[in-house]
């Protein structure tokens, strides 16, 4: 407050000063890095089969069917983990749920390391898949409930960045390690969080839901810094939780709202984006990169090419963060779709010339790597982050929780199907037709974006909800044009 004294009357009154802009504390940074470390394990685990597939085929005498099961059991386990995750975070807590998944990763990599045959690999991938599914729900919730809004966008990018670091690490180690040594690296990566776990705190939102008001205040104080007044935020947290408990609906009522006509249309947009994201073939590419490069006969060593793709995938995270709020969602989706259609078309043409004709493609040995770079970059600019971002933007607050669970489960189902059939399809009809099929699906995604996907750039969540519900929104000032916080994917 600023005190003003009028000399003629000696009347004292005060005017409010603008509050200082909140700053990110070391506690929040440590918290975000700690949980993002587990996201790095997700990336490492997802990419594992790419460098490991060749040595696994050799040591376990695997055919394509068994290899596709080793690869696709992870997303299948993630589907189950996504369902289990909701129960765990509400009963066990966000923090302890993340620890549980980290320990499951540790167990999975140990089983992997001591594998005697492909059945061990099946078990390992199912366990790690369950962990991935649980974390896909838990990490966003934990960060949203611990990090203050002013830095949530910046710190919210960390899990994505760390996830891509995990993919890159797996590709790098895969240049000189085989499947067993790669599993040992996974064991080592799982240990640090077990130590840091005892430093970070449970989310204030979960603590208040358990009636632990003193612990809630302690957690808030630790997160916001010792010199920060947390009373206002604490009372808002209390009020918010009280309002939620007063408006709880039965399961039947929730389903009725979820599948109302307008919400069903919005769910269709979200599920469409999720389907096109996975049917672009991205996870098949990430899981089988080394094998694809080996089959391509590229002039570059397959492990080096795979590593280059991992580097591009990592860098593209930050490119997407720069442009996602400048160009708009739809423009980036257009760029993403066109890039992927072109690169998949060229990749398919290369394999067609190589496998279905007598033409020597040795002089085109650079094409597989160039196509993969354009493909991964295009995906990361649009269809990688935007379906997840728009899921949070266009789904109304009243159904956001259950609708997000449905969308996440649907996404993992698509991931399982794509990764399971990719090699089988390539064996049956050839890599060229397989890539052309993915390209045709991505072309359909371009049409879907043009005709059905709304633009949400520069709009508040409340304005988006009103607009999609058919309520006219009038902008009162330039404040409405403030950019939303960046979101990770």
TrEMBL record:
Please give an example of a GO cellular component term from this record. Answer: plasma membrane
User: What range(s) does the Major facilitator superfamily (MFS) profile domain occupy?
Assistant: 31-457
**Where located?**
Cell membrane
Q: Where are the transmembrane segments?
A: 29-49, 69-89, 96-115, 121-143, 155-176, 182-200, 266-288, 303-324, 331-353, 365-391, 403-425, 431-453
Report the membrane topology from the UniProt record. Multi-pass membrane protein
Q: Key word Ribonucleoprotein present in the record?
A: no
Keyword check for Transmembrane helix, yes or no.
yes
An example of a GO molecular function for this protein is: sugar transmembrane transporter activity
Keywords, ordered alphabetically = Cell membrane, Glycoprotein, Membrane, Transmembrane, Transmembrane helix, Transport
Which superkingdom? Eukaryota
Entry's family note: Belongs to the major facilitator superfamily. Sugar transporter (TC 2.A.1.1) family. Trehalose transporter subfamily.
Name recorded for this polypeptide:
Major facilitator superfamily (MFS) profile domain-containing protein
Whose protein is this, by species?
Dendroctonus ponderosae
């Amino acid at each position: 407050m600023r005190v003003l004294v009028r000399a003629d009357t000696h009347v004292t009154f005060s005017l409010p000063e603008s509050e200082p802009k909140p700053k990110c504390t070391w506690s929040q940074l440590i918290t975000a890095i700690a949980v993002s470390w587990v996201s790095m394990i997700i990336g490492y685990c997802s990419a594992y089969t790419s460098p490991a597939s060749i040595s696994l085929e050799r040591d376990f005498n695997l055919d394509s069917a068994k290899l596709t099961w080793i690869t696709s059991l992870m997303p299948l386990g993630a589907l189950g983990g996504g369902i289990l995750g909701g129960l765990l975070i509400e009963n066990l807590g966000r923090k302890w749920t993340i620890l549980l998944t980290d320990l499951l990763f540790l167990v999975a990599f140990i089983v992997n390391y001591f594998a005697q045959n492909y059945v061990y690999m099946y078990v390992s991938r199912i366990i790690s898949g369950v962990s991935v599914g649980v974390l896909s729900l838990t990490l966003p919730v934990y960060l949203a409930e611990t990090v203050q809004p002013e830095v949530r966008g910046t710190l919210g990018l960390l899990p994505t960045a760390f996830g891509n670091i995990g993919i890159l690490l797996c590709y790098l180690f895969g240049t000189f390690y085989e499947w067993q040594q790669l599993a040992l690296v996974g064991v080592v990566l799982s240990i640090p969080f077990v130590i840091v776990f005892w430093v970070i705190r449970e989310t204030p939102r979960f603590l208040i839901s358990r009636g632990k008001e003193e612990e809630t205040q302690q957690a808030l104080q630790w997160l916001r810094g010792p010199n920060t007044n947390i009373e206002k935020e604490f009372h808002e947290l209390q009020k918010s939780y009280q309002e939620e408990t007063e408006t709880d609906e039965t399961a039947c009522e929730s389903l009725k709202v979820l599948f109302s006509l307008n919400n069903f249309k919005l769910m269709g947009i979200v599920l469409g984006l999720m389907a096109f994201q996975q049917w672009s073939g991205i996870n098949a590419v990430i899981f089988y990169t080394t094998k694809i490069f080996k089959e391509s006969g590229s002039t570059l060593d397959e492990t080096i090419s795979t590593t280059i793709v991992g580097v591009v995938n990592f860098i593209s995270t930050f490119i997407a963060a720069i442009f996602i709020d400048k160009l708009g969602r739809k423009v980036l989706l257009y760029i993403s779709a066109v890039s992927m259609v072109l690169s998949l078309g060229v990749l398919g043409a290369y394999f067609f010339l190589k496998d279905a004709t007598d033409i020597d493609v040795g002089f085109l040995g650079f094409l597989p790597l160039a196509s993969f770079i354009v493909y991964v970059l295009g995906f990361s600019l649009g269809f990688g982050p935007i379906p997840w971002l728009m899921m949070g933007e266009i789904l109304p607050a009243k159904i956001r929780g259950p609708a997000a669970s449905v969308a996440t489960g649907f996404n993992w189902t698509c991931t399982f199907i794509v990764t399971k059939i990719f090699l089988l399809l390539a064996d049956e009809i050839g890599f060229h037709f397989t890539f052309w099929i993915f390209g045709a699906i991505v072309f359909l995604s371009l049409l879907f974006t043009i005709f059905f996907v709304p633009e949400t750039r520069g709009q508040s969540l409340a304005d988006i909800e009103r607009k999609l519900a058919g309520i006219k929104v009038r902008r009162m000032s330039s404040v409405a044009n403030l950019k939303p916080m960046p979101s990770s994917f």
